[in-house]
Amino acid sequence: MTAPEKPDLILEKALSVISHSAGAQPVVTLSWARSTTGAIAAADGVPVKLSGPESLALTHRLRAAHDAILVGIQTVLNDDPLLSVRFTEGPQPQPVVLDSRLRFPLTARLLSRDERMPWIFYADAARQAQDALQCKGAVLFAVSAGAGGLDLGEVLRVLRGRGISSVMVEGGARVLRAFIDQRLADQVVVTTSPLILSGLSGPDMPILRSPLREMYGSDIVLWGRVG
Question: Cα angle at 171 between 24 and 189, to 5 degrees?
């Protein structure tokens, strides 16, 4: 007889928060991986693989549970991510990028997807840049400028109006800090790798209610509700 599979308590907690979305703004989950020293990337901004296979699988299960996945333009420029679900089965979230001055590269992999082309939020940009991105299939939303770039509250309200009830924010550090500082996050899921890395620091951890820590392989994953 095989032993019963251990329940994925962090996933269960996160899904419970997501399921109670009923407000004017989507439920916001902040998710990032860091080294034991708190770094989320190398000093030159080059991404470093921090998550082991077990915690990476959790991240992709969380992606599949959210309606949208959001990053800032610097993450697109540094990592060229697909922002897709790959290590589990499930629906693909809507990619969302905050790009106040429309620096989004026309060669980005997000523009080569077969489905769910990126939604890009901006505040001010030349008409030529707007036309080029729209020709590639991106959907653009003009919103007000705000602290750190864009008015995040307005971004969330627009997303809610487009049927998005849950958003997973994955970076970079500036975007994560902005959501924390403006008290727009509902929960966090943070992976801490045993890797020792000196580099770009991630955001400071907000005050969490009912925090839960679990081991995923050699990584420690922390979940908690914010505030």
Answer: 75
How far, rounded to the nearest angstrom, does the alpha carbon of residue 174 sit from its chain's CA centroid?
12
For residue 142 the two structure tokens come to 């003009």
Instruction: Examine residue 52 and say whether the peptide bond preceding it is cis (omega within 30 degrees of 0).
Output: no
3-state SS, residue 141: strand
3-state secondary structure of 219: strand
DSSP for 151-198? -HHHHHHHHHHTT--EEEEEE-HHHHHHHHHTT--SEEEEEE-S----
What class does CATH assign to 9-226? alpha beta
What does the pLDDT look like over 136-188, one tens digit per residue?
Answer: 999 999 999 997 789 999 999 999 999 999 999 998 999 999 999 999 999 99
How distant, in Å, are the alpha carbons of 90, 135, 200 from that of 110? 19, 14, 24
At 107-143, the pLDDT tens digits run 999 999 878 999 999 998 889 999 999 999 999 999 9
Residue 135: count of CB within 10 angstroms of its CB: 9
pLDDT score of 7: 63
